[in-house]
Amino acid sequence: MANETVVRFGILGCAQISIKLCKSISKALNATLVAISSRSLEKAKVFAAEQGLPDTVRVYGSYEAVVEDENVDAVYIPLPPALHVTWAVKAVERGKHVLLEKPVAMNVAELDQILEACEANGVQFMDGTMWLHHPRTTKMKEALCDEQRFGQLKLIHSCMTYNPGPEFLKNSIRMKPDLDGLGALGDIGWYSIQSILWAVNYELPKSVLAFPKSTFNEEGVIISCGSSLHWEDGKCATFHCSFLTYVTFDVTILGTKGSLRLHDLTLPFEESFGYGTFSESSEIDYGNIESGRWCPKPNEHVVETEFCQDVWMVKEFVDLVGKVKSLKMKPDKKWGVKSKKVQIVLDAVKESIQRGYQSVEIMMN
Q: Which of 102, 338, 340, 350 is catalytic?
């Protein structure tokens, strides 16, 4: 992207995640925050003061004001999922590029509305999943693609859980069907499904079967569930997501010759120190089976990085927007394709639960 091209951000909402994005935008080259908004001007002013935002950042008491601001090139939308389709489409129709928090929509039909609007208005779409942009993710993909070390992929298991406590379970937007409705499945289940699809190069499974006895709150929102995914070539995956158990962000990927394990998918343990790690095993010594030493110790790979993963995400988004803005290039559609495939599987898991834990076939488009 040309050095003189600066992407000017507006943020719709003062959610907790907005704090991280404010900092990320400030660290990303050729990005600047020019506007923030909330449902009330007072709340937006308090947020700006608490985060020490410069006086040049315009503070609005409505989301509409940011969308209508001609000096805003791109918007970050951390609003409740039920509001995504409304505000994303409004922003896109006014020519704003969209960085949209996950889950990106309540269902794939809503996401289609957003992506169709992006296509019609020539703007860039990306969801706000940060781990995909960490440099270690590229290194992990290299390990999976090394047939000599990893072999053929056979099984994936992802476990994404945390216990936020009774206050969250009672009052969080994640627990309100009119604001979210997807609960744990949309919040951390999104990461599980995404990690599985990432490992298989976003090849959709043939079928999805939710595990019996999902847990719901009194309003019918999912707070704990799991599912299996099955492909025609025999590989399979399982995942569990929950707001009821201790924090875990694990992914295990098993191949015929090796394995890959990560215990901190969504946020690296050592992110503040500028690097992330993952473990990889291969080359089993079958000659030592009788001695009990045949299982190899995993190799730990350290991937150093100059920036945290949220900064890398913003940098990549800004680069794509800059190419559209200054070089008149077409938006990169791959991010919308990836998000849609995650949403398709998420919808299928929810459908399986609603149908009494029956298998749901996924139709290939």
A: 102
